[in-house]
Structure formats: C-alpha cells, structure tokens
Amino acid sequence: METLTEPYRVYFAEWLAEHEPDWVFGLNMTLSDAVPATAGLHAAVREHFAGGRRRGGVVFWDHDLFGSCAIHDPQTGARVYPERPNALTPLPRDDAHTRWIVISDGLADEASSYPTDAVPEVVSNLLPTVPEGRPEARHREFAAQQGLQEGRPVLLDPVRVFRIKGVDVAVRLLAEMREEALRTGEPVPYLLVFGGLDEDPEYAREVTALCAASGVEDDVRFLDGVPLTSVREDDGTWRLDEVDLLRVAAASSGGVVFTPGVTDVETVGLGPGLAAMAGLPCLTTEYDVFEPVYGPEFARVRMDTSPESVRAGAAEFVRTLAAFREGDDALRARLEVNRKITEDRFPRAPWERFWRELRAACA
Q1: pLDDT at residue 266 in the model
Q2: Are 182 and 106 in the same domain?
Q3: pTM > 0.90
C-alpha cells in the first residue's frame, strides 16, 4: 500500500506547495474507491499543514458512506463496498487541520461506529432559490434547441444515468403517462434526464432500448450533465443549470420525477427538494430515507417499481399536472407546504456558520 500511495503523496505535496490553498475539499473520499489516492492526500495534508506552519487544512465532505452505499454488482449480486471500513481504509482524524462534514444525521450515526477519533458535523445540502416569473430568452432558446413543443409539460429527472438511480423506471413511467395523456386528452410530457449516456454504457443501452420499445424515444432528452451555471457554447447551444431547468419545467406546468430503482442507496435524495423549491409537483418511488429527510407531510405522488404501481402512479401524476396547470388552490397549498418543509430541512445557517469558521481559521 505504501508503494501505491507514494506517487499520490508526491503529487498532492507538490500541488499544495505550488497553489498554497487555505482549505482543500475532498468529496466522498472516505469510500474506498481509490485508497492510495486518499492516503496520499492525507499524508500530503499532514506534511503541509501540521505543526501550525500554515493555517487551514482539508475538509472531507461525504455524501455517502459504506453501510448506506448499498450498491450491488448486477452480475454477482455482491456489494461493491463493504459495510464498514477496514484497517486499510484512510479515515479523517481529529486534528487541527482536518474538518469532516456529512450531509445527514443518518451518515453521522453510521460514522460514529468507525475506527477513528474524528466526529463528523452534519451540514445538510444547500438547495437553490428558484426565481418566479416568465421564461427568459435563454429558456426559450433552450426549449427550441431541444425540440420541446410549447404546451407540453417538462418533467425533470435530476439523476445520473446509473442503474441504481432508476432512469429505466422513469422511462416506464413516461410511457404510461403518455398512454394516459392520450386517453384523457392531456398533453404528453417530455422527460429531461440530467445525466449522460457515457457513465454506464451497458445500462445506457438498456435505457435507450427501453425508450424505443416503449415509444417514447422522441419524448426523452439526456442532457449529458448539468453545469453549475448556465452557459452558451461556442456553437450557440445552451446548457442550462439546475435553476434554469426548474424554471423551464415551471413555465411548462411540469414537474420532477425521482425514481430510485432500489430503496437503500439514497442518503437524502434531492429530487423532491428541488421540486419543492421551484413550487413543482413531484413523483417518487419509495426509498428508505424519504420520510426521515422530508417527513410524512410532504405531498408527492408515490409508487413502487412494479408495472401495476407505475401505471397507477402515471395516471395520478397526469391528473396532478392537469390540476397544476389549472391553478388548483388545494394543490398550490400543498406545494407551499412542501417548500416550507424543504427550507426547514435544508437550512442555510449551518453552511454560513461553517464558512465563517473556515475563514476565521485562516485569519
């Protein structure tokens, strides 16, 4: 392990010496995807910041940990990650140049059993503020470039094209919604998936084949990633950020679908929160941490992944979108409750406090 770690230690040590950052953020580095790289960062940070020679350090920011990341190999059924770290796993330590934050109480509880003296702080995700108002030029141009016809609702699926994220479930849902919309005279929705087709090519082929077999390939767009801020490419093509995509969906009287294919991998699940911040209806499959995060009062259309449940969920969501388009007062009131729940569950104050502490440590 030392032999494998050394090149990474050297690289990070040289990078730290050249750039002199105050704080380095290591995202999801507690998971054992690249132990030599993580161990190399730990060693380089100790050398660079230890002994009070420099202020600052490293922030390990974990969205997933071992027990909660229950990804299984589709061929063998075996867990990709062990249920807990072992003796070779580099873990954050309680020292002057290390901060450890996680995004949920559940992850903090899990980390309490790890073999380290460090105790992570819970700093929940920040969700964006979504402006109201009519679409702007970039939204209209994006819709035209994507071939989105006016009058049809846009559904956002804010996930990667990765098996556990359940994009196949969202496609099955869209196909059932299409049938229900045609039967009832409602507009057929579009589905915009945030991820691209290159991350998991085998699964992506399954998803695109399902789109074709279900008759919805003309109704699905894969956005190939969503930028931190909207950008117009050199060829004039717009790539919209999360907020602008939510505004496109809102302008179309659309919604958000969040359909994990398994119940035990999500540690938060931000799809419902994004819907709430934009005042949009939401449909989800059942997953374990939904109620611990959002609570029982959060209004949503619920389904599981069985064909019967997907069909029923599709019919209910078509009715929900129709009520949303018509300005149904009861639905609007439920969506406002969703917004208040989400603002309470994802507060800004912990992040503001955390940034002040990082700044003060370097003063």
Answers
A1: 86
A2: no
A3: yes
